[in-house]
Fold Xanthine phosphoribosyltransferase.
Amino acid sequence: MEQLKNKILSEGRVLGDQVLKVDSFLNHRIDPALMSAIGDTFAALFAEEGVTQVLTLESSGIAPAMMTALRLRVPLIFARKRKSLTLKDDMWTEKAYSFTKQEESEVSVSRQFLHPADRVLIVDDFLANGQAALALARIVAQAGATVAGIGIVIEKSFQSGRATLLEAGFRVESLARVASLSEGRVTFAE
Ligand code: G4P
């Protein structure tokens, strides 16, 4: 998606050779026009998948997922990251280990909102090692529902996430694929 790649090139900041900071339009301040275009693009890519719900993880996944759900005319669910062990009975819960943050978190979705007939599009802002998307996919499986696909705004193609998700059998669509962040420069995979 050219508009997104241009935004990354003009406003993204490279930290070390592993992390791309995009606080000015995705992770802190949000560019609504760009999110709207992202929603259009995901909705077109997954138009034939019979999506009944979009699922993301709080907090930065919510903006692009919201615009996607709006375009697909389906609800958006955001999984909660919670440390608390209360109210577990009425939640689907999975653990996700973050290599970026070196911490494990629990992600939860109320059982009220996911059903076996659902075809769920998972949307997230970043794909690094794929652990967040996998945890969401396990929640979908717990509910007896089906993953219709996984939409990623920015994929770090030099990390293992895409391979992990493809191996698990999912369709993965990334709007910008970053091949390298070495020497402070962003290079795209295609
Ligand atoms: P994974 O799910 O693909 O395995 O990724 P990982 O756990 O390593 O990522 C943990 C968090 O770090 C996620 O945000 C993810 O979006 C973010 N992240 C990973 N790599 C980058 C990067 O290069 N740049 C930026 N800006 N973020 C990155 P999170 O903890 O869910 O935070 P948030 O959604 O509350 O913002």
About this structure: The chain has one domain: 2-188. The longest strand covers residues 146-156.
